[in-house]
Automatic annotation (TrEMBL):
Gene3D superfamilies the record matches: P-loop containing nucleotide triphosphate hydrolases
Gene designation per UniProt: Sult6b1_1
Limits of the Sulfotransferase domain: 1-155
InterPro entries given in the database record: P-loop_NTPase, Sulfotransferase_dom
Catalytic activity, EC: 2.8.2.-
Protein name (record): Sulfotransferase
GO molecular function list: sulfotransferase activity
Family per record: Belongs to the sulfotransferase 1 family.
Transferase is among the record's keywords: yes
Entry keyword set: Transferase
Organism of origin: Heliornis fulica (sungrebe)
Length: 168
């Protein structure tokens, strides 16, 4: 099992745009309203922090590989190599480069109308990291840090995510 995790602040920011672009999901008049809903577990798929907590029970299993969106974004070739090795898939250098190119956010966004139809623009917005800094107030940042620490702060997943997000 490949478990891809992401900075909860970017998850919230991305989900804000996603939910406002999907007619079947609740939409929000502004970021502050969305933030309250996100932090009070009023999301259609539940609480991201509880999701991480549940997965933390399995992260040490040899059949589970946890990787962060941030580490794949920082070094896509290494991320693909590590994933391929985990699944026991040998890749030539040419195959590796092909996977890296076709799985880049830019490539997926470019092809999103073909692969995802009308929802392509909703699913592939920016693909970056740290966009949360354009939305979170200082108080919201502190609140999320507190909840993060309470749910996953000292766990293996929490430590991995914290290192990839806050320490690089």
């Amino acid at each position: 099992i490949l478990l891809l995790i992401r900075n909860p602040k970017d998850v919230a920011t991305s989900f804000y745009h996603f939910s406002n672009g999907m007619p079947l999901l609740p939409s929000y008049d502004n970021w502050d309203d969305f933030f309250v809903a996100f932090m009070t577990k009023k999301m259609p798929w539940g609480c991201y922090f509880e999701y991480l907590s549940k997965w933390n029970k399995y992260v040490a299993d040899e059949n589970v590989m946890a990787i962060t969106y941030e580490e794949v974004k920082e070094n896509p070739a290494l991320g693909v190599k590590n994933i391929a090795a985990f699944f026991g898939i040998p890749l030539t250098e040419k195959e590796l480069q092909g996977v890296v190119e076709r799985s880049s956010f830019q490539s997926m966004k470019k092809n999103s109308q073909k692969t995802h139809g009308a929802f392509g623009n909703v699913l592939f917005r920016k693909g970056g990291v740290n966009d949360w800094k354009n939305f979170f107030t200082e108080d919201q940042n502190k609140k999320m840090d507190k909840i993060y620490e309470e749910h996953v702060g000292g766990t293996k997943l929490g430590t991995k995510l914290k290192y990839e997000v806050y320490c690089k």
